[in-house]
Amino acid sequence: MAGRATQQGSDILAWRKRIEDRIAKATALISRLTSFRSGNNRTRVVRTVRMAFAGTNISLSQPDITQKLTERIDDLKQKIAAWGKRIRRFSERSRRFNQNRLFQSDQKRLYKSLERPEVCGAGPGPDQADTVAFWRGLWSEPVNHSEGPWMEVVASQSASVTPMDPVTITPEDVSEAVRRAPNWKSSGLAGLHHYWLQGFVVCHAVLARQYQRGSRSEVAPEPLHYRDHSLGF
Fold first, then answer.
1. For residue 221, is pLDDT > 70?
2. Of 65, 68, 179, 185, which one's alpha carbon is 20 to 30 angstroms from that of 169?
3. Which UniProt keywords apply (predicted)?
4. pTM of the full structure
5. Mean pLDDT across 97-120
């Protein structure tokens, strides 16, 4: 099986090498044809142009040779584009295939391969006071929304809806939620994998208390008052 896989890999590399050689030869031929069209009549250039039109009824001395050269150059450019697209299509397919296979076998390694080095700008960073003022203007200033008549209709229709019971998060809830989570994924900013949360069961009681405290209206930000379900328990 290993020998067969090696043989397939060699065939793929040979196939790609042949196409790359075609692209290189076509690019060199385009350069010679363009040079001849611009008036370069050196012996080597003329010989290459004659070989390019071998097997055709085209003569280098005919009046429309410039048009024939342009057509030949355009034809070669289209072939190069097609060959390049074929290589890119194969490379993209191979990349997706390898990523899917790696996702099934080693998710941690896959995510590591997807990481990219952070690109920092060369210019100065944003002013701290301006940044604080910007976000404070978004989150701290009261906003008056224009509420149309339909809001009153919705409010009257929702008057009979029974309020949701307070959410009680227990250590068992945390254990069950972590148990279903993929081992090598992380849902928090700390980057701690679920695998460790599954193993350190002593932390489940602490996490339950923190989630419970965060769900209280006097602690959680206002948008979370209506989204207790977002905690995942």
1. no
2. 185
3. Coiled coil
4. 0.47
5. 83
